[in-house]
Amino acid sequence: MKFTTLVSATALAVASTAFVGAAQARDQVQVAGSSTVLPYASIVAEAFGENTDFPTPVVESGGSSAGLKRFCEGVGENTIDIANASRKIREKEIKACAEAGVKDIIEVRIGYDGIVFASQKTGPAFNAFQPADIFNALGAKVLKDGELVDNPYNNWAEFNADLPDVGIAAFIPGTKHGTREVFEEKVLAVGCEATGTLQAMIDSGMSEDDAEDACIDVRADGKSTDIDGDYTETLARIESNPNGIGVFGLAFYENNTDKLKVATMGDVAPSTETISSGEYPVSRPLFFYVKKAHIGVIPGLKEYAQFFIADEIAGPSSPLAQYGLVADPELAATQAAVAAEETMK
Amino acid sequence: MTDATQSPETGPAQTGAPVKSKSLYALDNLTRKRNAAEKRFKFYGLGAVLVGLFFLVVLATAIISEGIPAFTRTIVEVEFTLTQDQYDTAEKELFKTKAYEQFFIGALQKQLEESGMSVPVDAAAIERIVGKTGGTIREYFKANPGALGAPAEFELAASSRVDGYMNGRVTRVEMTDSRFLQASDLDIVDSLVEAGIIKTVFNWNFITGADSGVDNPGGAGIGASVVGSFFMMLVVLFLSLPIGVAASIYLEEFAPQNRFTDLIEVNISNLAAVPSIVFGILGLAVFIQFMHLPQSAPLVGGLVLTLMTLPTIIISTRASLKAVPPSIRDAALGVGASKMQSIFHHVLPLAMPGILTGTIIGLAQALGETAPLLLIGMVGFVARGYPDGVIAGFIDPNSAMPAQIYTWAARADYAFYEKAWGGIIVLLVFLLTMNILAVILRRRFERRW
Questions:
Q1: In this structure, which topology does domain B223-445 adopt according to CATH?
Q2: pTM, full prediction
Q3: Is A29 on the interface with B (CB under 8 A)?
Q4: A190: closest CA among A116, A134, A248?
Q5: B97, B345, B384: best to mutate for the A interface, most A CBs within 10 A
Q6: Other C-beta atoms within 10 Å of B42: how many?
Q7: What residue of B is the nearest CA neighbor of A66?
Q8: Domain A25-112+285-339 is found in CATH 3.40.190.10
C-alpha cells in the first residue's frame, strides 16, 4: 500500500538523520560574528578556497556579540572555530568562555575600519564637522548658554554657522551594532568633553561615571534614528531624505560614492591613508578570535588564520585594502603571534 | 419616493410597509434598492480585484526591471597563453590566484598594445576593468595541465563597475573617479567593446554558480542555494506530509472526543501562528546543540521548516477530510469495509486534492522563510559550491534561496543588489514550478462524487 511505503520512507529518513549526525566529521572552518567583518571574511574565505586544498570556510553573520556568544559555547565540532568581532572581546565574555571550557583564545587583529558620516550626493554639504557638532546635534542633554538643558536644537546652523541651515536628521547604528560603541566612544564622548558638557555635568553633582554615561545618551525626540539593519538600510533612508546624514563604514561609502557625499571630521576627509596615519579620528580595530583547542582538529583552521593576515591578503596593497580595510601597520607582529599560537592572557 | 408622489393610489399604506406593484414587470422600490446594492457590491468586488492586479503588476514590473541585469554579464573574451614557468611560479605563491591575474593582465596589455589601440592602456586600468579572474584561470590550468604553453580561449568576468556601465547603472555623467573605476577607463572599455573583446552575454553563471566574495559580484550565482533549498524542501516534504496526514487522519477519524484531543487541537492551531524565528531557536537548541547535527546543513534547515509547516498541513488536511461527505464513509462501511479500508480506499483519495493544496501552501511558505535559517547558520557566506552526492546535499553547509537574497541585498556593491532581484525571479520560478506540479497532481487525483 502507498501509505506503508510512505511510512517506511519516513522512518528511513529519520534513521539516516540520526546516523549521519553521529558520523559527521566537520572538514571546513566555521566562522560567525560581526557583520562589519563579514565582507572581509568572505573575500578571504573565497580566496582561501581557491588557493588551498582546504574547503572554503563557512562565514555567518549575526553581530559581534552573537558571534562571541556562540564562540563561548564550548569546545567541539558543533561549535564555531572563529568569531569575527568589530570590537575587542570583553572581560565578561572571556570569563563566560573559560567557564564553558574555551580557555585558550588567540586574538587576531586584522586591520582598521573607518567610520564615516555621509549624506545624499545632491544634498547640502557637511564640511565642517567636529565631534562637538555631532554631540550638539544628537546628545540627549547639551550645554546651551552655560546651562545644561534637554537638547533644544532643530537645525545644524543653530550651533555652528559653518554647517548648512537644514533640519537635523541623523541615522546612526542601533545598539546591537559594534559600530554604535565606536560612535559613542569616538564621537559622542569626545564631543561631550569638547563642548564642556561633561564638566558641567560633573559640576552639577553627577559622579564621573554617571556623567560619562549621560554623555553618550542620544536624544529620543525623533531627530536621530537608530538603524538596526545593515548599511543598505541607512543608505535607503538617506536616499529618501535629502538633509539626512548617516553613519557608514568606509568600505561601504567607497562602494557607493555615486550616491553618497562624505563629511569631513575635524577637517580631515576619511580615506585609508588618513585613517592609517591616525589623522581621521573615528576608526576602530577589527578582530577575529580563534579557538586554540580546535587547531589540529578542524583541518585548515590555523592555515585560514595565517592566510587572513598574510601581507598578500591584508597588507597595504591587498584585496582587503582594495575593498576598504585600513591595513594594520603592526601586521608582522600579529603574523608572528598567530604562527606561534600565542593565546590571550 | 417620486413614484409615490406621482401615483398616490399605489403609494405606501399607512403602516409604512411598501405595497407591491401591481405589475410583475415594474420593479418596486425595495427590489430596485436591492438590485442597486448588488450592483454596487459587484463594483466593489471588481475594484478590489483591480487594485490587487495593479499591485501585482507594479510588483512584477519592479522585480523584472530590477532583476534583469542579473541575468546578463559582461565578459572579457581573450586568448591567453600561460607558460609552464609562469604556472610553476604562481603555484609557489601563497596568493596564487593573484599571480595568475597578474600574468593575465600583463598578457592582455601586451596584446592590446600590439593590436594598436587608439587609447593608452596601463596595467592599473586593465586591473580595474577586469574582475576577479585568477580563480577561473587557476582552476582551468589545474584541470588541464596539457593546455599550458598553448593559447586558450577565456571568457572572464569584467569588473562590477564595467558591468554596470554596460547595463546602464553606471553612467559617465554620474560616476566619480575612484580606485574602482576612472572616467578614462570607460574610453578603454568603449574601444574594447568595438574590438569585440568586451561583450555582454547571458549569465549562465548566475543560474548555475555559487556565492562569491563581496569583491567579486561577477562570479556570484544562485545555483548552489537553489540546490540547498531543494534538499530542504525534500526533507520538509518527506517528513511533514506523512506525519501531518497521519496525525490528521487519526485526529479526524479515530481519536475520541475528550479534553486531551481538544488540547491537542487548540495547540495545533496555536502552533500555526507561532513566529518562524521561534522555530529557528528551537532548531538551534534541539537539532544542533542537543542532537549534534551539523551546522548550516539543509537537513537541519529542513527539520526546522518541517516543524513550521506541520500545523499548516494538519489544519488543511483535516478540513479536506471533513469535506468528504459522510455518505461515502457510510457506503463503504455498509458494504463491509473496515474503518481503515473506508478511509484509505475512499475518504483519503477524495481528500487528496485538498491535502495537496495545503501541502503546497505549507511548502511555499517554508521555501520563502529566512528567519529560522538565521539561527542555524545558513545565512552569511555559506553557499560555496555544489554538494557532491545526495548525502552531502543534506549535510554539507549550504544556503537557501531567500537567505542568499537577503545576504546579497545587504552588500555594499550595488551589483549585488541587482543579483538579489535576480534571485527573487529565480525563487519565483522555483515556486511556480512547484505550484504547477501540484496542480498537475491535483488534476490526476481529482474525483467526483
A1: MetI-like fold (1.10.3720)
A2: 0.83
A3: no
A4: A134
A5: B384
A6: 10
A7: B375
A8: yes
